[in-house]
Design brief:
This protein is an alpha+beta fold. The protein has five helices and 13 strands. It has a five-stranded antiparallel β-sheet with strand order 12-11-9-8-13. InterPro entries: DUF8093.
Amino acid sequence: MELYDLLNDYIRPKDFENIIDPLQAKRRIKEIFHLEKSLGGMVGSLNGYILKRNDGLRSYYSYDLYDQSSWSKLDSDIDRGLLILLDLRRDADDGYRYPFFISENGELFCVNDAVYDSLFIKNILISFSMKVLAYGKPSPTRSNFVPLTREYGPGYWQTTDNDYHALLNVGVMAINRATSMGDEGRPFMSEGKDFMNTIRDKIQIWSPLSEYIDNENKEIISNRSVIRRYGEQREIPQRYLESDDVWAAEGKSWHWIPTISDECYEFKK
């Protein structure tokens, strides 16, 4: 468990998932550290004080008004997200110890923005964005806690459209028409091979779980699901080809490859 200056200390994007709730952080800091006067307000000091780990004999409680003012300044910096306490994320995460979560595509979000001060959230998110520019996006948070906000949560990919790249496919179809000229008596576009190598993009968005799923199954899916931003979009390139098909009598059929359902779940790996 370590205390960091958000603006000046070396912190990587992945560390932001380990930020401790401000109320708990202030309590734990007073248990772990004590204030000592520094010489002439040295660099890294807090109003002329520095934090040192307790040796078991010291207490943060003080009747010195200057001490109390320094602790108040420290508490204020924690409330504003300028000082943060980091602790490795525990398996038994109840959603109250760690205010932030990293989604599947590396975005940081607050799990309950109604609980925390807006300035605290803003400062953390701005700093995270700067760290991402320097170090790249982090891997997603893995936890038994399932966050659910207005913008982020478990869900499924729902198909909203298919982009068939009309101009490009016209050229492909012209080639197919030329090669099928020898099939006398067969109308063009009457068989799958006439559409061979045409392409499309299946467009899907991340959507909340359906209200028609019963609570038991919804809980099972939520616990296994990745966490993404609702409305996040993905495009999956597909090509029309003949491929194996266990349901076809001949063992093969013409269909879009790769095969993607119009509605599909994405589970944690």
